[in-house]
Design goal:
alpha/beta; Cytidine Deaminase, domain 2; 5-stranded mixed sheet; dCMP_deaminase; Deoxycytidylate_deaminase_dom; zinc; hydrolase
Length: about 150
């Protein structure tokens, strides 16, 4: 039986996560529309700045006031920014990501016109939060955000 595009794109997001230079978490994302890949991304500092696993190999990069990475873009942000930079239309696109979107990424996803999000693992569980605020936000405002099967 042939794999579905959902399965293929989620596998690609999982493989992309392995490209991340983050010491703490490796996350990958794929943006697709009509069975075609629009953009890809993984978490890490902006291109041309530094690589955390090289510059801060033991503890990772400096943390912000909430204990998150102070230097990196999230995988979803990188995928969306690259798509926009190259003139892609994201209206109606689907995002596949290895970690459910945080609330700031969810706002960006919604604003970009992405209509569906599939994720593998829970951001809330990873961060020790009570709920997946990003997933809740997206579902509340008409973007289907569901755990991939």
């Amino acid at each position: 039986m042939k794999p579905t595009f959902d399965h293929i794109f989620m596998n690609l997001a999982t493989d992309l996560a392995k490209r991340s230079h983050c010491v703490k978490a490796q996350v990958g994302a794929v943006l697709a529309k009509d069975t075609r890949i629009i953009s890809i991304g993984y978490n890490g500092p902006p291109a041309g700045t530094h690589n955390c696993d090289e510059e801060f190999p033991e503890q990772g990069c400096p943390r912000d006031s909430k204990g998150s990475c102070s230097l990196a873009l999230h995988a979803e942000e990188n995928a969306i920014l690259y798509a926009v930079k190259n003139g892609a239309n994201l209206e109606g696109a689907t995002l596949y990501t290895t970690l459910s979107p945080c609330l700031p990424c969810a706002r960006l996803i919604f604003s970009a016109g992405i209509k569906q999000v599939y994720f593998d693992k829970s951001y809330a569980q990873y961060k020790g939060l009570a709920s997946d605020e990003g997933v809740d936000f997206l579902n509340k405002f008409g973007v289907s955000a569901v755990k991939a099967e």
